[in-house]
Amino acid sequence: MFLENIFYCFKDNLMKISNKIAPIKEDIPKLNRIHIVLNFNYLQYMVSEIAFTWLNPIKDKNKLVQLSDWHLCRETFCRELCRFFRRNGEDWKYPTKLKLNKLRIAVIFPIFEDDDIRKNYLWATKCKKILNVFEKAQGWKLTKVLKHDEYVASGSVFAFIGPPEWLQAPQLMSLYLLIIRLYKISSCFDIFREMKDLPLVAYRVRKIYYTKKASYNADISRFLRTYKYWGAILNNHKELFFKDTIKNNYILSSGTCGIESLINETGSSNVRMMEVWQKIYKKVK
User: What pTM did the predictor assign?
Assistant: First the structure.
């Protein structure tokens, strides 16, 4: 670990020098807009953190409609899909069924200060770029992000529309949502261009959030515990998650079977998947 830290310190400083010579201006790209038919009866609390809700398309291609409650927790949000598949959908409490040909979610970022609107806009675009790095590496279609076209007092609302592969298993969906929730360390991802850059991102996170004792939360801790497995999970996604149907992947999940549960080998009764993971885990560890 000591030698590894020296290596990443050297690499990080080299990149900083390079950026001083040829500074990269970070412009906020324009986002296309879409109208989301929101139902704030589903918003049971004031937004103090990022929250998620499922979306469906409607006949008007310029609109999406909110389908479910807002969720602060990634795992309870994924549990909605467990209910969708369990008992032939009888546990799904919403009147409309979820369409699964694409991943469609709305994300609301909290607003505490005037500048948060700009920051939220910037992070949504950065988040798309991060997700796209993983998607390109797997040959998937790319996530796109659209801005809700109306003002919402509770926060900044964006639609994330991604490839259906993320939906295939709760572990993949959990990772997708975790990446979105890492908005508090967005500056650490400025150098993230390929999957092999993740250790350098982790080095920056440790340096900022441990040595400088900056604000720290569970998502950042979860990133540091799991990031070295992300590549192995995604590179082996077919063997892990696509030998079973999407329905079985969720039914065999406890509903809290996220990426960390997979790594720790808990929360799933899918014996085949866990046997595959054990072999992959030994190689990474």
Answer: 0.88
Handedness of CA 16, 22, 25, 26 (dihedral sign): negative
CA dist 159 and 120 (Å) reads 13
State the amino acid at position 159 in one-letter form. A
Phi, psi of 106 (to 5 degrees): -105, 140
For residue range 114-145, list pLDDT tens digits in order.
777 788 888 899 999 999 999 999 999 999 99
Strand pairing report for 144-148 and 63-66: unpaired
Q: d(Cα 84, Cα 67) in Å, to the nearest integer?
A: 12
Angle between helices 170-181 and 74-85 (to 10 degrees): 150
Please give the pLDDT value at position 23: 40
Angle among Cα 219, 27, 128 to the nearest 5 degrees reads 40
Distances in Å between the Cα of 151 and the Cα atoms of 148, 156, 158, 269 are 8, 8, 11, 44
- Residue ranges per structural domain of the chain: 2-284
Question: How many residues does this entry show for the chain?
Answer: 285
Is the Cα dihedral 76, 81, 86, 91 positive or negative? positive
How many alpha carbons fall within 13 Å on the CB side of residue 31?
Answer: 28
